[in-house]
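User: Second chain of the day. Same drill as before.
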Amino acid sequence: MKLYDANKTVHTAVDAAVATAKTNYNNLVSAADGVYDAAVTNAGVLSTLDTADSTFTGSIATANATFEASAKDAAAITARNTAYAAANTARNVVYGAVTDTSADVQYRVDRAAAETDYYDSTNGGFQDRFSVYDREGEPCPRCAKPIRRIVQAGRSTFYCPSCQK
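Assistant: Same format as last time:
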């Protein structure tokens, strides 16, 4: 067997493995998309958001009624504004938890989809797809904090201090 034929056989095997890996990733991405869609349309999640909105509206109405019944002096204004802030914070905590969860699921779906691009044995351009390598000071693609660089044994390592602990 000639070296060319041996290399061709290896490349054919690698290409077959790459095709299988892409299919597996595509299946995972489809499954992740389904999980994400279910999460953002989940009746329990929507009910939680509706309850948070209802509680917020009720708290604001109570604060306004209390203010209207008061002397409308500086203390009453401060009390009303404090109630507004507390109601807003309570609603934002619920919305923030749902939004963070949805954003994390979407990030994972997008990341899994991007992973399929890494499997290409012909172009050798893997280094072009690094998320943080050689990007010191640039914002992290996930959290936007600056990428840091450290030197270990004469080699550079780039990382996000927030995402990679």
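The beta strands are 148-152, 155-159.

User: Great, on to the next one.
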